[in-house]
Amino acid sequence: MKRAVWFLISAYASVPVILYLFPWILGHAIFAHLLRFPFFVDLSKPEDVLNHTCNFYLNTDQGVSVGVWHTLPASQWEKAAGKSPEWYRETLGDGRPVIIYLHGNVGTRAINHRVGLVKVLSTVGYHVLSLDYRGFGDSTGEPSEAGLTSDALYLYHWAKKHSKGSLVCVWGHSLGSGVATNAAVKIQEQGSAVDALILEAPYTRIGEVVAKHPLAKMYIFLPGFESLLWNILERINISFDNNKNLQVLTSPLLILHSEDDNVVPYHMGQKLYQTSLQAKKKLSTHAQVEMISFNADLGFSHSHIYLAPDLSAVVRKFIENLTG
Ligand SMILES: *[C@@H]1O[C@H](CO)[C@@H](O)[C@H](O)[C@H]1NC(C)=O
Ligand SMILES: *[C@@H]1O[C@H](CO)[C@@H](O)[C@H](O)[C@H]1NC(C)=O
């Protein structure tokens, strides 16, 4: 009995020490890219889970190959039968809006709720490009904040080029919201704002989610534990600071957040909404900023907003305002 208690106490106490010594462990916990759910989907065969979709790879960096699914607007399903990747790429230029979907941590582009959202967007009439960042799914390389951002940036420029200038909207869910705003800042620095930004269940700064995690909360009594976490995040170059990014972004923005989100608290979405409203005022742009909340009774929590019956209408209205 005594030994068991001692064991538990030392296991508890060793976690901060291990994290301090091996800070990359925290990075692995944040990306969780090695959990390649769902295990039995062949990512090179999207037809097993999604219709009118082709799989291809982009070299987003030296030695980095990133897997992407291109799902066509559902209205094109008949025409798409048996077509080549070249035909798909050509069709991206048909003038319909393109959504780049940047998923959250854990698992691949084949996870149910990700596929579910792609179906909704395809039914509304958009092209959807859904990628697995470096280190995720069948993509090569190792994840890092800078690396994920580069992947998204590369895909945005690729989409802009092949869609021949159609509206390209960047959609980031959860961890992907930070990738989205990081990429948007870079694109803006390069000279033109991203056409549209949709953030689903976004956080203010990733460290604020980490510090609120149930595992981290077990250590809240340990003096200095929270500053240890921030210190580690700094050492592994992870900040994903949406709140800071939104202070400079001039793109039209739609935030979607469920009141019962059990991973990224709802108040973080509200905070970002306020930040963006103030920023647009300060930067004197008239770009629209909107937040849509989903009632806790609906039970969409962190990953199921795609089930909302009014989601199509909300997104269509936001995009139509931009395309006229
Ligand atoms: C693809 O579309 C066909 C015909 O509409 C449907 O029967 C099939 O279930 C769809 N497959 C997937 C994976 O959604
Ligand atoms: C963090 O970034 C700095 C500066 O770019 C770099 O020298 C360092 O190797 C990076 N650390 C990690 C763990 O990636």
From TrEMBL:
Transmembrane portions of the chain: 6-26
Domain named AB hydrolase-1: residues: 97-202
Pfam families assigned: Abhydrolase_1
Top-level lineage group: Eukaryota
Annotated Gene Ontology cellular component terms: endoplasmic reticulum membrane
Keywords per UniProt: Membrane, Transmembrane, Transmembrane helix
This protein's record includes keyword Calcium: no
GO biological process terms held by the UniProt record: monoacylglycerol catabolic process; phosphatidylserine catabolic process
GO terms assigned for molecular function: monoacylglycerol lipase activity; phosphatidylcholine lysophospholipase activity
Protein name: Monoacylglycerol lipase ABHD12-like
